Amino acid sequence: MTLKIERITAGREARVRLSGQLRSEHLGELEAELERGESRVALDLEEVDLVDVQGVRFLNECEDAGIPVLHCSTYIRAWMLRERGRPKKHPEPL
Question: What pTM value is reported for the model?
Answer without folding.
Answer: 0.86
